[in-house]
Amino acid sequence: MNDYLPETTPIWAGVEATLRELLTGYGYSEIRLPLVEQTELFARSIGAVTDIVEKEMYTFADRNGDSLTLRPEGTAGCVRACLEHGLLHNQVQRLWYLGPMFRHERPQQGRYRQFHQIGAEAFGMAGPDIDAELICLTARFWKCLGIQEVTLQLNSLGSSAARGAYRDRLVAFLEAHLDRLDEDSRRRLYSNPLRILDSKNPTMEPVLAAAPRLMEQLDPDSRRHFDGLLELLEVAGIAYEINPRLVRGLDYYGDTVFEWVTERLGAQATLCAGGRYDGLVEQLGGRPTPAIGFAVGLERLIALLSEAGYAGLKTDPDAYLVTVGEAAGRQGLMLAEQLRDRLPDLRLQLNCGGGNFKAQLKRADRSGARLALLLGEDEVKAGGVAVKFLREAQPQQTLPQERLTEFLAACLDDWRRLAEYNPIRAGEV
Ligand code: HAM
Question: Does the global pTM surpass 0.90?
Fold first, then answer.
């Protein structure tokens, strides 16, 4: 579980602002969900024999003896909330969420025990149009953040009947090659054989390459759905790879599944993953409701962006107010509060904790501020303030204090503050 220090939080804020803006632009509304749910919710939705539920959940008994779990993912809680608040009655819903998830995995680069996801869930739409639109949305995430080296992998897991029949064929095939399976695959052979297809062990490669493929045994509805999706992706100009071994680690999926992967992150290569889960709402007590969603792993996305030198949201102050002497200290506080009243956008840092002129100017410089505002005995007497540009070759000037608001407003305009806050609107992406 990581601390996120001030040097990295501007990147987080930049990524979150960009993704939030895009999700809103595609018609998704934010939903905020609790970090803790009844354990049973996850067992019923993710699946009792998945790695997450068997080995990775932070589960505890609360004071009433109820079994609770820190959420390992967002979909189950989102469906629970929709059912609890009647959000799915004869209507479509497009929802998104952001927050920490918890899995007791073996930590390594890109894999943590507390990590963050931005996820989206779309309910009530059965056709491949929403699958395509969701994938377009994720593709736009990368485009807007300037990420190029990602590949879309796609598969169809078909209907549950087709999956059941396929499962039997796969088990029979793997039983016939038992001597070539590694320990992990033997353990999963009867409990979760489809997950064996996802094995990253190179010694398993030849046997898995020869395994029967679910994609070749889809029933007609699933086939039509998948072909429809491929056609729409072609229309949208989104390149994809079909990966018949993409099975996902959660049991609620059927039909479309997808992952965005990159070679730049080492073993933890999946940046974003999702798929269709048309059976889950009913399984959790609602009416049958088609649904599809995805989640982006923010730590991985941010690792990728940091490596590429992405700066994120600017947080440096615009101005730093230096005050020398008691009278200037008092007047400085008043002036700073006045400026904040008049210019709500202004980022102004007031020197606190004393220090001589030189020391304060050094702090001003270190703060990253573009301007230092100087208030000493002379300025207090004359009702003025000196302005020193810290990043631009411009001469220092002294202004009457009553002109300072106007002066700073013009500077803020110049610096295109809005452009920095909203790279999408500013057309920089
Ligand atoms: P997931 O594949 O388990 O899917 O996780 C989605 C993404 O979260 C992964 O691709 C990865 O980027 C990130 N992630 C997962 N585990 C970790 C970890 N231990 N450390 C860092 N990042 C991690 C789901 O969670 C589904 N709920 C996605 C979904 C939403 N499907 C439909 N709707």
Answer: yes
